[in-house]
């Protein structure tokens, strides 16, 4: 009797994977599984009626990505026909919809299905998943070996927790759950917030509303335009991108090299930090020419501590200076000297039936209130995640986050997160980090599938040491300066900042190869049973070369990490550059040599739009 193939070394057992969320992360995982695996079942539960995640949910006026459109794509999946330098939310959502169609990923996705509970069952080494069909109300009971949470980083609107919010009698809407049917023409609008969403909303609604009052609680650094040629692409440019793909590749590479050249900006006291602060302060002083306005609108914290607004200086203009009890500076975006924009340099302390009351006690009435107040970045899941012993991750992370490198959860087996705590969501291109996390998760699925593994769990000690390292690093970074940001859940000193302790390139190198000694691997039976019946997989492939290792020269994989890394990053392929400098920021350091092509544009490192 011949040996059985299913008893060969590293035979692939069937693995069942469930992912929560069909945004950029979930779709990337679907693609990676389809590309490299064969013996698996995969299901994505998505609460929305379409894919796209944050790009489906965010549809407020002017919503767009603040990363150049040709760089807000998967590294392997360019799009030649973006209509503008910064794509709007609809166009980005269409990109992901097209990605699903191209690779036939729809067969994995259950739309309008909201996961309501996940439970680990130790005896079987499985996760039980309950999801509700939002169209029929039916509860679906499912299970998997590997559970992946791809719910996104910006998916829980943060409403102001203020008295009287339910008493307001007008139309109230959050930017992250916007209703496009709301009529704004001729209305008095109250816009609460002055971050990235508000910066996009204000210039879009200003031409059609009667008045818009914007509440600015704290100042924000404003960057020059990310690209020197912001705006719509011409038909000729789009046709060239389509017919000459290398031009799109060159553009993407130039933008990416620039983004990855400025990480030291996020470290306190570095040359780039000081240069950038000097540049931005000088440019903003030119726009705000009176001392009182400068005091209110120019931050005193480090550039990058709070999310930098990439609106471009050309969108900030000075209009008439009005004085009542205080000086008001009319901020006009995209147009000069408009009179229907009223900035209030104060937060909001309460709502009234007709409007709001500012922190300073003044009342403001409005027909519509738009809360551009950001997201809840506590990382607490929408649904309970019950781990070993019935422990609920919702409760545990409400007290203290114990994540592992953006993908793992301390003591919770066979489960992973995309864009979890300590992912580089603000200091580099996020989609690239998503791809790296997908590859990392797939390496665990591969090992699980080819070894007799019951469960794989991040060790408590590893997670504690990792968090301690992050805390030590963050003392040197701008994210622990005196400002509110999403990494400390919008509270100064609220927690150890939950972004990655390094650059995106640093993250790619850190996560490329799993550190297996940081993980507890529990086996079912003999851990070496994966050796099988002594027959190799090569012997089971009738088309394989049984003498594949005989060659003329050594072309094998490099044995050291630095040699492997040098191949991946194409070391030696470009002219030497000046390290940790960006020529466009070097206004106070004329002796610094300008960099090559990268110097043509400046980009901020925030990789997601809100």
Automatic annotation (TrEMBL):
Keywords: FAD, Flavoprotein, Oxidoreductase. This is Uncharacterized protein. InterPro entries: FAD-bind_Monooxygenase_sf, FAD/NAD-bd_sf, Flavin_mOase-like. It comes from Daldinia eschscholtzii. Pfam families: FMO-like. Belongs to the FAD-binding monooxygenase family. GO terms for molecular function: flavin adenine dinucleotide binding; N,N-dimethylaniline monooxygenase activity; NADP binding. The keyword Acetylation does not apply. Signal peptide: none annotated.
């Amino acid at each position: 009797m011949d040996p059985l193939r299913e008893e060969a070394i590293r035979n692939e057992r069937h693995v069942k994977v469930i992912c929560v969320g069909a945004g950029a992360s979930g779709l990337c995982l679907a693609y990676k599984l389809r590309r490299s695996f064969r013996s698996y079942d995969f299901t994505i539960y998505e609460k929305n009626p379409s894919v796209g995640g944050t790009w489906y949910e965010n549809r407020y006026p002017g919503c767009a990505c603040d990363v150049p459109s040709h760089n807000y794509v998967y590294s392997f999946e360019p799009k030649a026909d973006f209509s503008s330098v910064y794509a709007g939310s609809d166009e980005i959502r269409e990109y992901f919809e097209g990605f699903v169609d191209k690779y036939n990923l729809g067969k994995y996705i259950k739309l309008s299905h909201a996961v309501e509970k996940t439970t680990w069952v130790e005896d079987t080494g499985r996760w039980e998943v309950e999801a509700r069909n939002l169209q029929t109300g039916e509860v679906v009971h499912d299970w998997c070996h590997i559970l992946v949470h791809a719910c996104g980083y910006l998916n829980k609107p943060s409403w102001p927790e203020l008295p009287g919010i339910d008493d307001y009698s007008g139309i109230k809407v959050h930017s992250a759950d916007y209703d496009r049917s709301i009529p704004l023409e001729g209305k008095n609008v109250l816009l609460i917030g002055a971050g990235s969403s508000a910066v996009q909303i204000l210039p879009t609604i200003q031409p059609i509303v009667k008045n818009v009052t914007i509440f600015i609680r704290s100042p924000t650094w404003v960057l020059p335009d990310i690209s020197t040629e912001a705006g719509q692409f011409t038909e000729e440019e789009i046709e060239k991108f389509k017919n000459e793909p290398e031009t799109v590749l060159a553009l993407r590479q130039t933008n990416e090299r620039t983004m990855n050249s400025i990480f030291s900006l996020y470290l306190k006291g570095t040359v780039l930090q000081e240069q950038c602060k000097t540049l931005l302060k000088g440019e903003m002083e030119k726009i705000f020419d009176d001392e009182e306005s400068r005091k209110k609108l120019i931050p005193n914290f480090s550039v990058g501590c709070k999310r930098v607004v990439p609106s471009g200086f050309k969108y900030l203009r000075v209009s008439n200076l009005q004085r009542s009890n205080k000086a008001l500076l009319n901020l006009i975006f995209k147009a000069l000297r408009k009179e229907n924009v009223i900035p209030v340099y104060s937060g909001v302390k309460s709502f009234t039936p007709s409007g709001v009351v500012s922190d300073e006690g003044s009342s403001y009435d409005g027909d519509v209130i738009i809360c551009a107040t950001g997201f809840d970045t506590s990382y607490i899941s929408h649904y309970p995640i019950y781990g070993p012993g019935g422990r609920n991750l919702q409760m545990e992370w409400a007290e203290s986050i114990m994540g592992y490198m953006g993908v793992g959860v301390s003591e919770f087996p066979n489960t992973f997160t995309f864009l979890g705590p300590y992912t580089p969501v603000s200091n580099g291109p996020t989609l690239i980090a998503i791809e790296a996390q997908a590859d990392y998760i797939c390496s665990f699925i591969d090992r699980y599938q080819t070894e007799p593994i019951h469960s794989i769990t991040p060790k408590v000690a590893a997670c504690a040491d990792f968090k301690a390292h992050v805390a030590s690093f963050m003392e040197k970074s701008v994210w622990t300066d005196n400002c509110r940001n999403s990494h400390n859940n919008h509270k100064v000193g609220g927690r150890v900042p939950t972004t990655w302790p390094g650059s995106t390139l640093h993250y790619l190198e850190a996560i490329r190869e799993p550190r297996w000694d940081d993980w507890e691997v529990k086996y079912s039976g003999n851990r070496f049973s994966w050796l099988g019946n002594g027959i190799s997989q090569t012997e089971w492939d009738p088309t394989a070369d049984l003498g594949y290792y005989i060659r003329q020269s050594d072309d094998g994989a490099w044995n050291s990490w630095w040699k492997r890394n040098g191949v991946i990053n194409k070391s030696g392929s470009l002219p030497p550059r000046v390290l940790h400098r960006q020529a466009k920021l070097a206004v106070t350091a004329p002796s610094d040599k300008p960099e090559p092509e990268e110097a043509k544009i400046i980009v901020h490192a925030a990789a997601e739009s809100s």
